[in-house]
Amino acid sequence: MKNKFIQSIFVIAVGSMLFTSCKPKDSGDAVSGDAAQKAYVAPGKYDEFYNFVSGGFSGQLSVYGLPSGRLFRVIPVFSVDPEKGWGYSEETKPMLNTSHGFVPWDDLHHTEMSQTNGEVDGRWVFANANNTPRIARVDLKTFKTAEIIELPNVGGNHSSPFITENTEYVVAGTRFSVPGDYVNGDVPINTYKQNFKGHISFVKVGKEGEMDLAFQIVTPGVNFDLSHAGKGKSHGWMFFSCYNTEQANTLLEVNASQKDKDFIMAVNWKKAEEYVKAGKAKKQSVKYVRNKWDEKTHTATSETKNEVLVLDATALKDICYMIPCPKSPHGCDVDPTGEYIVGSGKLAALIPVFSFDKLQSAIANKQFDGDYSGISVVKYEAALHGEVKKPGLGPLHTEFDAKGNAYTSMFVSSEVVKWDIKSLKVLDRVPTYYSVGHLCVPGGDSKKPFGKYMIAYNKITKDRYLPTGPELAQSAQIYDISGDKMRLILDFPTIGEPHYAQAAPADLIRNNGQYKFYKIAENNYPFAAKGEKEAKVVRQGNKVHVYMTSIRSHFAPDNIEGIKMGDEVYFHITNLEQDWDVPHGFSIKGANNAELLIMPGETTTLKWVPDRVGMFPMYCTDFCSALHQEMSGYVRVSPAGSNVPLTWSVGTNQPKI
After folding, report:
1. Beta strand ranges found along 316-401 (DSSP E)
2. 58 and 139 inside one domain
3. pLDDT tens figures, 593-618
4. How far apart are CA 100 and CA 132, in angstroms?
5. What is its main location (predicted)?
6. Which of 511, 542, 576 is the last residue of a domain?
7. 556 Cβ contact partners less than 8 Å away, ≥ 6 residues apart
8. What distance in Å separates the CA atoms of residue 651 and residue 549, rounded to the nearest whole number?
9. pTM higher than 0.90 for the full model?
10. Which tens digits make up the pLDDT trace of 243-271?
11. 635: domain range?
């Protein structure tokens, strides 16, 4: 009873601070006099960094420039996007396929950039789907989602997608432990402790970025929150924050906060690999889907997989260890040297920092404090480097610079605290506006942070922007961290609810072979028309395929007759342009899905089923030239059984067969 009473008092106190003390006392002095100059990027000049920000419940990834805060692009990942036709065109629909069917949305919380030797390399950005568990890979040559893989045995994919230092694996831990897909899940909810399990997924990444679910580790039924891979000396290990070690199944805000400490789980994935190679993993029957985009054929394919290799962490005693951590930890972060592991207990008033060397010594000397559901628990003091005392309220997430400093977000006290990794002394603190969640320092979770800026992604924006009804804009704030003191230089609205984000130097990405257009000669799409002479209309029963080209400023063909009620019409549009930034759009009256947006040299398909007899205008939806308005045409729809022949033309009033 005493513990519950103390918990209740703490929750009330936290709530009071959150809703009555939103504005920091020194907010009037928070912005320096030269802030505008530091954030200003002149017209025609480039930003120093790309910032890849999760879109939260929008299922999108947004790309901003730093330090300007300008929005460059919104990349649809797990969501449909009518602007780009993503999830609407026939080619992209398979990208949103899952074992549950077509799922056109998700809750994208975290992003992670690919690395080589522990350094950001600018090739790919990985993103997680928190709801229907998936991992996506975005290709930074095209800024397009290139692959999505579903994760079986998982009830939520929040602790994802965190990568090893050479992008060997993208790793994910389940948010909600559930019975595995390979066992009977029709069990009473209150049998959680007996039947619910966690699964950690290791997704292998190939040289070209292709993803394959290599193996999973089944663990006791806890909730994994965030994770980071070791680096340098700790390469080969993965560290996960765990909560609900009480294994509660109802009213978690009370029942999952009973203990003073939860855990960080340390996973020796190199040892796990050895066990897989030695045949220690069991093949389990499951069902999950992998979707891939092909830039040569301009199409996506979807395949269903039916088994996964699973290792049992309780049977193989040397792959997983528990480290006590103040309760309800969120962030789990590893410094650039790989020596220090930082836990962030949301309900703690300190920040524990663990030593990898001490952890290894504790394991070797069996300095354990019993076990948790069959997994050895390392003694807290045996692995502890030290604690950051009184840093603030509600530590959430930590990023690092290249000078030996750490930056931790304080959700409750609405601030960011800078502290020295070795001495654990607090060096500086700045207010945020308000209730900051995640942070981003460019390269801040790699071996080579680029520093200079720190971005805070906030949950509440009261009084920062013009009001927009009951819901206010989401926000981010940019701080200059090049000096001893952090200085706020800009805040800007963001899309969706920003969570974790990544940033990298612009030159690293834009000079890394970005596509400017697709070469027509390399377009291997079977319905491509690579010139106007190849434009045609073909009937196959009630399916009509229109091989159409677009170029400034007309379609070919632009007059089509002989379409009948009951037909399914497939417009395969090939953009013949071979110049940078000349996309064309396409839509037709009555289209109940979306437009198409076709990049130069690309072919994309719109399926259209006419619902009435009549004349249907079609037009280019993307402003492409001075004669954009003239880029249009007509489709005539006749009754079913009509004897109107199928004809098409461009540039003549009398179609030729």
Report:
1. 320-326, 329-334, 340-345, 350-355, 368-372, 375-378, 384-389, 395-400
2. yes
3. 889 999 999 999 999 999 999 999 99
4. 9
5. other
6. 511
7. 532, 535, 548, 549, 550, 650
8. 14
9. yes
10. 999 999 999 889 888 888 999 999 999 99
11. 520-649
